[in-house]
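Hey,
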Amino acid sequence: LSVNNQSVESSGITKDYKEALCEYVWNSFEANATNVSINCIPNELDGIKEISITDDGDGISYENLHNTFGAFLNSQKNSKSLQIKTKANKGKGRFSCFSFASFAEWFTVTSSTTGNIAYTIKLDNTDKEHSDVSDPVSTHQPTGTRLDISGIQGIQAEDVSFDQLESTMLKNFAWYLYLNKDKNITLTINGINLDFKKYINAEASVEKQVQIAKIPFKIALVVWNEKIKENFSVYFLDSEGVVRSKDTTTFNRNTVNFNHSVFVTSPFFAGRDGITLNGRKSEIDGQTEL
């Protein structure tokens, strides 16, 4: 596969290794993973030999590789990504490791019309524009992906310890883990689960159960101890916990240090997409309300 439409070097790829790891974790969650783990393997000199990111998601579709690994700055994203994340990385995320590493190899298992298949994708820092893709083989392994990053320079073992990565991961994923807390979604760093509750200001957060025209609504205002990476937003979920819509709150440009997210869950939102806080009218029990 080749990327021809824009220079990778000038595309604004992150130089922060912690943010790079977040990009790969997002790729896993966007592939519907429920369990994502980051494991950092040290070498004999207290450096890092390899970083592996493993998930149990859908894998990387072999049929659509030209629209994913073969595209750049217009990378396809699934509906979950478009509904959840404010900003898409447009295919830049897969190159993020090259600010501190030389090689990236994905081993992925995905479903096909004939059953599950496994194959590898390799990227080399010296030739970013080309991906080396192996032929797929049939397998009985479950779907999922493991990314191995190697040829690492400038990072010590202590730099990727749980203590060093915890704050960045909470900033990026605490809201997402809260959003999916009933689905047992986990993010593990060197064998330790990331606990989103540590990022919540419990005294300021509130949950309420209300009824509007006999329809139940559960409203959760979550106040974070520190600013999150995502915009402060209201998420509208149906009874199955599926995000139907989202909208930013009015506090994103406010100077008050009010770091928050709002989660509204109700059967009312089933089949209703595009609901916002401004201007969208919706009907509840025959009555039109703003």
